[in-house]
Amino acid sequence: MRGVISGMVERVRAICDEEFLAKELGHIKTTFFSNGYPAALISSATTHATARPEEHVPSPTAPLLILPYYNGLGEKIKRMGRTVGFQVYFKSAASVRSIVRNDKVRMAPNEKPGVIYEILCTCSASYIGETGNSLSHRYEQHLNCLNRYKNALDDQRGLGIKRRGRPRKLQPNEAMDEAIKASAIVEHASRCDGQLYPNVIANEPDFRLRKIKEVKRHTKALLLPNDKTRMANLKLSVIYICSMSRLGRDPVF
């Protein structure tokens, strides 16, 4: 409680002119007394706060001390600094809360945008790709293509469920071809019942570097059959990107 009173008195001394100081100190005493603080404590704390030894105004070159704050000891060091002419500032010590808690939102690897990723099948076939979106977003696109392929295949076999609304714009064969073109995973999954497991190989926000890293990973991977043509195209893309970079121009795709 003494600290609360002393703090208010110090604040008044810092912001009030001398002619208003006595009036403000009287107001502080009255306020604390009306809130149940003992009169003796109010008087003692006020006297102690107003009877500090004269402080030396530190010069711009006065020594500066920054210390961890310890209750009781910190106040003594600060008083000593005022009497001999050096500045004392305190920094809070690290708490368990500040060490353990981290308010920064940590995104899961598959939720970060800009990734080189791999989709591995249990048959050991592997697809490597890149996307400016997150892996979860890109993998969902692959699955949507696969679902469109399966629905078109059911329609072709006469097993499709009749739905209300507008008829499909594409014939089953056309829809299947479009799905395969949109995702190399579709053609493989249409011939293989293996489970697919997506994972992030690396995060890379820069488009050029993503393309280069994708090619590097392709050369080490066991590719899907129709992915070898894509790799050749990727190498050409990397050559094009590097050439445009040397010219200081952005590639156009």
TrEMBL record:
Domain of life from the UniProt record? Eukaryota
InterPro entries linked to this entry: HTH_animal
Xref: Pfam families: HTH_animal
- Domain Helix-turn-helix, by residue range, is 2-44
Annotated protein name in UniProt: Helix-turn-helix domain-containing protein
